Automatic annotation (TrEMBL):
It comes from the Bacteria. Its cofactor is [4Fe-4S] cluster. Keywords: 4Fe-4S, Iron, Iron-sulfur, Metal-binding, S-adenosyl-L-methionine. This is Radical SAM protein. InterPro entries: Aldolase_TIM (IPR013785), NrdG (IPR012837), Organic_radical-activating (IPR034457), rSAM (IPR007197), rSAM_sf (IPR058240). SUPFAM superfamilies: Radical SAM enzymes. It comes from Actinoplanes hulinensis. Pfam families: Fer4_12.
Amino acid sequence: MSETPLVRVARFLDRTTAEGPGERSAIWVQGCSIRCAGCFNPHLFGTRGGTPTTPESLVERVVAAGTSGVTLLGGEPFEQAAGLAAVAAGVRRAGLTVMTFTGYEYAYLRSSADEHVAALLSATDLLVAGPFRQDLIDRDRPWVGSTNQEFLHLTGRLSDVTGPDRVEVTVSATGDIAVNGWADSDTLDALLAGLPAGRARPSAH
């Protein structure tokens, strides 16, 4: 049996209320070949970078965080489907929920012959699918960027997709600024006004 691939993790957030229903952990992966125009995370397009991490250690960290589950973002999670399927399955075995964002259409993923893609789908409770489109900005639904993106309830869990969009700004003891959640550029500029330039690291869905 082949060994489960490591996950190239760009960022791990133990607790957030901006990346799905309730309080969740969030994992951003490095690498995305879709490269949507206007994406909030272009620094995650390239496959170089990120920290190679075992699925088992990611599951342990999610469980230890004591949140209701994990949200998988990127980058593109389904381009690391083997490793993330193991993460999602482990989180689910612990009784927690899994939310996954993807720039691929659901029909495309369903038609894939890749067993790991099918495994990640089967271990996902709530899937947000579809590419970000700058011409279809969504200002009404939480967590999504454009109106073409679908909420797909693959299980009976995580049925509540209502609520406001949230943006979290964290400043570390060393002055590094991390942003996650969804906001347009004007809102982000207002939030970051007055903070030291060049230290911000955005990550969003």
